[in-house]
Amino acid sequence: MNTTPEPLQATPFLRVMFAVIWKDLSAEWRSRELLSAMLVFALIVIFIFNFALELDPKSRAGITAGVLWVTFTFAGTIGLNRSLAMEKDRGCLDGLLLAPVDRTAIYFGKMIANLIFMLVVAAIVLPVYAVLYNNFHLFHPGLLLVIVLGSVGYAAVGTLLATMTVQTRTRDILLPILLFPLAIPLIVASVKASSGFLGGQSWSDLRDWVNLLVVYDVVFIAAAFMVFDFVVEE
Amino acid sequence: MADKKPGLLTGLDILSVVLLLVVTGMVFFYAPLEAVMGAVQKVFYFHVATGWVGMVGFLLALAAGIAYLRTKDMKWDIAGVAGVEIGMVFMLINIITGSIWARPIWNTWWTWDPRLTTATIMELVYAAYLMLRQGLEEPEKRARFGAVYAIIGFISVPLTFLSIRIFRTIHPVVIGGGDPGAEGSFSMTPKMLQTFMFSLVVFSVLAVDLIWHRIRLGKLGEKVEALKMELES
Amino acid sequence: MIETRRLVKRFGMKTVLRQIDLQIAQGEFVALLGPNGAGKTTLLRILASLARPSLGQVMIAGYSLPWQASAVRRKLGVVSHQPLLYGDLSAEDNLRFFGRLYGLAGLEARVTETLALVGLEHRRHELVRTFSRGMQQRLAIGRAVLHRPEVLLLDEPHTGLDQDACEMLEAVLRQVTRAGQTVLMTSHDLARAAALAGRFDVLVRGKIAASITSQDLPPDGLLAFYRQALENNEREAGKL
């Protein structure tokens, strides 16, 4: 029998994680379904806000951050649902679990891929918003930091919850219901910090919010790390 | 049969009812009228006690969630659901009594105060918990996902509180708080304190009683499921 | 190669597997037969390390579950009625991805070799979602044997395949098992099982009710044997 002398341990964590990220990105490259859905949805949301709130120059300044974050989180939910539905469709999740890999490596691979999709959407929505409203103060380093921190936390909780919801009967509707109440501190802090930076407040004024974001990210990544096994294993 | 209602539980039922009557009497006839706020302050005794029971319920759900994931014993799942359901009911009473008090004192039914808002978001978190369970038919998976959500849901609560706390608060901190600026704060006389402490005890007894009932109901439900299954096969 | 001892699986109050003692020697091809709901898929999922038993022991290729799960997973290949493939990846990218999860050395050569084995080299760059059910199932077998497992678990591999696709699937199966792998296959298609397996175990209500090897089986006798096993079980259940 031609058995190869492969080690009998799990495949190294980072190799698995990068394989999962590579797989998600190349599947997206071939289909472009997830990003296009997220983007079109994000732009529609901005247009709806424009008419619903009558974003004239005066009122706009105060709520730009709110509009942006609602857009990101809604589009993020669509992306998360699609990303995990892809694992369920042809039974792929079982395929991943059959491999000799650490389950948390799968989690971090999926989470980072989802984070990349969210950041790509932000990278496109932000300039579009800037052009639409002729507001080029948007590219403030503080705001960019907040977008990254907020997206990390959102992807961390969202990936964990979406892994559960794709296994339920009610699938797509359930994700926002589970995710939004847990994401409230994240969204409050992101909106407040973003609008602070856009309004020209200093770093020291906004330290509380940025700290809260960091704490949220750390706490939920750690929690997901500990419970992810239970979400995939019977 | 083991399904017969335990005598201790019946005793606890009676004790709960009696204690509830006693504490109601104490609130209205023993505790003095608060000088500034008047009769509406009496809501405070129920408000804090129900909030306490609500938190105990959610804490039970958290502990049961951790215990379930470690042991995979279905009894912890039943305990978790009991904690969430009892917690939700009492937290709702807490929010409503708070609202009744806030109308004359803060001049509004609702404010975006951290405690009030956090309590309401908690209700939403646990409503989501119940909906997640509803979407799952397999009991084992339902228990496992429920436990995971109960754990991370509870973790989010202090962060939610903190995030709203950084907004300014007008909620009075009666216990262990010395902020005289909060609108509607007052200091307790000894009689008030006695009534307050007693009400905490009474509601704790009531909570134990109700959680016990709910766990019993859950176990009976499980038994019915098992009997049904036996009939089918 | 595969051994279980007093294996029990409960879902809540429902007992799906009751004390399964299964022994499969190296190189055997065993078909696990049984009516729907007998627990076939559950048993396979436990052997595949996807589900944990409530009680009892599982040994595969000398390693025990769940403690040595990674070692077991390296020795196992699984084909289920779902292909476990990504529709938005090409055939070769699917194999490449799963190969990376196993940390395989010489991956490119393995991928090419495996695609040849299942007869899909000419479509290696095409997306899996454009494949027919039969082609997807062939690639699924490729995915399962990519890391050259010693044990193959097949869960209803014929589901949803037409006559031609079934024959092709069997040809591929014979091809990949030539090296002497141990195979456990669930099926409710007796004719297909009879054509492939060397031993037949009948699982009824979470218990192995009967077992027979193909040598002991009279020609075309599998159906009669299977019915007899079900009837005996029925009678025993009636007595209790």
Walk me through what this model shows:
Chain A has one domain. Chain A contains eight helices and no strands. The relative contact order of chain A is 0.13. The N terminus of chain A is likely disordered. By secondary structure, chain B is mostly helical. Chain B has one domain. Helices cover 76% and strands 0% of the residues of chain B. The two termini of chain B are 24 Å apart. By secondary structure, chain C is α/β, with parallel strands linked by helices. Chain C has one domain: P-loop containing nucleotide triphosphate hydrolases (Rossmann fold). Chain C is built from eight helices and ten strands. In chain C, the strands form two sheets. Chain C has a six-stranded mixed sheet, with helices on both faces. Chain C has a four-stranded antiparallel sheet with strand order 2-1-4-5. The model of chain C has no long low-confidence stretch (mean pLDDT 87). Classes of the chains: A mainly alpha (234), B mainly alpha (233), C alpha/beta (240). At the A-C interface, helix 1 and helix 4 of A face helix 2 and helix 3 of C.
**Count the helices of chain A. How many?**
8
Helix coverage percent of residues of chain B?
over 70%
The secondary-structure element order of chain A is HHHHHHHH
Query: How many strands, what sense, and barrel or not for the largest sheet of chain A?
Result: none
Distance between the termini of chain A: 33 Å
Helix content of chain A: over 70%
Could you name the ranges of chain B where pLDDT drops below 50 across 5 or more consecutive residues?
none
How would you spell out the order of helices and strands of chain B? HHHHHH
State the oligomer: heterotrimer
Overall average pLDDT of chain B? 85
Low-confidence segments of chain A, given as residue ranges, are 1-5
- End-to-end separation of chain B in angstroms reads 24 Å
Number of strands of chain A: 0
TL;DR?
Chain A has 234 residues and is mainly alpha-helical. Chain A contains 8 helices and no strands. Chain C has a single domain, classed as P-loop containing nucleotide triphosphate hydrolases (Rossmann fold).
